[in-house]
Design goal:
- The protein contains 27 helices and 17 strands.
- The protein has 1011 residues and is an alpha+beta fold.
- The radius of gyration is 68 Å and the shape is flat.
- The longest helix is centred in the middle third of the chain and has 79 residues, at 425-503.
- Helix 11 (367-382) runs antiparallel to helix 18 (672-717).
Amino acid sequence: MRLHRLEITAFGPFGTTQTVDFDTLSAAGLFLLHGPTGAGKTSVLDAVCFALYGSVPGVRQSPGTSLRSDHAPVGTYTEVLLELSVGDRRLEITRRPAQQRPKKRGTPGFTTEKAQTWLREYDPATGTWAGLSRSHQEIGEEITQLLGMSREQFCQVVLLPQGDFAKFLRADAEARGKLLGRLFDTRRFAAVEERLADLRRAAEQQVRDGDERLLALAHRMTQAAGGLEAARTPVEGRPGDPGLAESVLTWAAVARTEAREALDITGVRFTAAEHGQTSARAALDAEKELADRQARHADALRRREQLTARTPERDRHQAALDRSLKAERVAPALGLRTDAEREHAAAHAARERSRALLPTDLADQGAEHLSALEHRLRGELGGLDAARRAERRSAALAEERTALVREARADEDALQDAAGWLADWEPRRTALAERVLAATDAAARAEHLAGRLEPARRRLDAASRRDTLERETAAAEARLTDAREHRNTAHETWLDVKSRRLRGIAAELAATLAEGEACQVCGSTAHPDPARTTDGHVDRATEDAAYAAYTRADEARTAAERDRDLTRAAWSAARTEVLGAEPGTDPTVAELAVEVEELTRLHGEAHALAGQAHGAREALARAEREHEDRVAAQREAERRAAARTSRREALEGEQASLDEELVRGRGEFASVAEHATRLERKIAILVEAAGDVRAAELAAQRLKEADDRLADAAYRAGFTTPAEARDALVGEAERRDLQRRVDAWQAEAAAVADRLAEPGTAAAAVLPPADPAAAEAAHTAAERRLRQAASELAAARERATGLTGLSRRAGTEVHRLGPLREEYDRVARLAALTAGTSAENERRMRLESYVLAARLEQVAAAATARLQRMSSGRYTLVHSDARSGGKRAGLGLHVVDAWTGNERDTATLSGGETFFASLALALGLADVVTDEAGGVRLDTLFIDEGFGSLDEQTLDEVLDVLDSLRERDRSVGIVSHVGDLRRRVPAQLEVVKARHGSAVRLRTGGDALSG
């Protein structure tokens, strides 16, 4: 990787664009980057890192800090452009961080613009740059892949911080491990350690879980074996114990054996109890059967005595049943006589009712006479049909004539109303048309006024803002004047304090000297005459306080100037908006308010009138439709009047012909309908009376025939009179009850005879009385013994079954735990070995430390080649993996002194020796990291401070080593304050500090050495 060109704009202390030509600097192979403190030397290196990785090293990229220069003018973007070569590719990277910029529209102020990145590649064939990407992520991945280094590795390899490597030489193994781990990215080895530790913990947890399950099964087996000898000696052990599985299986086998023996014993007891219960049950059944037979015999004797007492009652019931059976043969004749008598009574009552409705002369007439009179009246009724039709037609004609009269009156009223309305039509239509025209004109006028009103309102608002901003601008000018005066006073104070401190800086540096330690200026360890402080001496804290006050005053001045500019810009914009299309006038707020008020009034009136346009059009349309409807209604009414005249004449002629027919049909009645109704009522009375006469005669004949049949049936059944037969007849319910009583007596007599005839019952009656209570007590005791034996057998069987199942599960769990325990042993051994805690790891080195030790050994070998040259062959760096006290080994670093032959720790080196040893270590580390990162060639390196601690001879040797890097076409930049280097290194990049921002100057050849 070689740097060609760097452009820095508004970045760090650089307020304007600064260009660094690395090609010119690299031509000499060795160049010097120098300048006063705070000028921005480190910012040049930060810009290179920012261009490549989008961030800067260390705390300079911490939250709350900004990369933008405070000296940059508003509107200038903070930007870094870097042109470099990687392999055979030439690239250009441009980056802009997120930053504030003025708003382009809307209210005055600032807005945040997002970070941007561009990546281009040079095409030698066409001589042009081609854009590759504008994505932050894609460009970051591309650069990291090309360089093969992260930002941390780049800062340690390309930007060599000597102070960090001096700390590295004095650090312990833990601190060295952290630095080397970041550079060589040994996270994968640490991940292997963590992974093995996780696997060990997971395997251990699985084994412990299995042992806990096994102990839980053992506890359950102990509970299941309650009452056995094995339950008194449960399994002892904890999860993870090696012999736990064997102990559980052995105890389970003993418990199963005892459970099977207990099961056999309880089985024998159960069989004996079952035989005793069977014998007791048989004895109880025999005693109950004897008691039952004796009770049956006694019950039969009691029931026979009761039957003997009820014999007379049974004879009476039987006699009543016999007489009822004879009366049943007379029952049909009795039913017919009763029905005939009921019909005769009903027919007689109907005859009396119809007789009351007949005239006196017809009350005693027969059915034939009444029927003849009915036929004569029906003929007379038939002759009235035509008259009734004429009467109905006459009523319809009367209703139609009445309707014609109503229609005539309605049409006459409608004609009069239409004539009156049509007489006023023309004036009304003219007035409505004028309303429509006025509303249309008002709408056009309202639109025109609205176009003038809105600009007038905006001018009024702008005038109000103009006056307010004019006052605010004057106040901002006053604040800016005060801020400038305060800033100038603070600046002069700071410069005065700084010059006073510089005059006494020698005394301040002398205060830090210690006997035997090198001077920071001359490098000497002898201090014969150190400077002394004088009256009025200013220390660094006073200067920093003065500078901080000046910085705050300058920031306040910048903020006041920015506020003044923003307020003035807003005032100018408001005034321009007020002038509008009349730049020659500058109206006041009062004038514009009067104008807006007048336009608002006129617009409101026009708008209100224009709002009536739709209603006016609708009213005109409704009036025209009503005019058409009234004209049409007038014509229709005239047509209906002519039709009614013709219809009225036809109706009057038809009514005249109907009146003659109606006179004949009414007779002496008011109407034909009344006449017909009277005839229909007489006919109905005659029909009903004739029917009642015939029904009464027929009912009397049937009653006489029923009396004859009843007398004959009673005689044949053996009764003297029909009344005697009627008394002997009983109802169906009573007869069934008598039969039930007789049948019950006979069934009871048969059952008693059968019971007394049973052979077993008679034999039991002569035996002693039975005692079932004693037999029941003996049976209950036998059953209690059987239940207890069955319970003991079930418990023993359940215990044996449970122990067998739990033992099987315990065996399965032990079988399953075997591979897990083997896996845990293997993983635990590997984890302890990689973590450095195993006895097999004699030096207690972790895996990551082991890898880093190999890398450190490579770094020490690469650094020794340069260190021997810098120290004239005296010093050699060697790696040591010896343990120090109780700490782990692997990352020790010693120096071998060829003059004494002793090997000692690098922390014992002096200041100058530490510098060139750390420089050699940094260069060696750069070579190793480069090879580790994929062999990307690093053609540009930077080395930070530390040269002031070297004497002249050692400085020459160090510069020779650095100069030898040019043999591999490398360029090395030295960042230093040492004045002697300015005379020794001709190519120089000077950073100059000024009030308005820093700048860079490129010096080469004699110009640099003379300057």
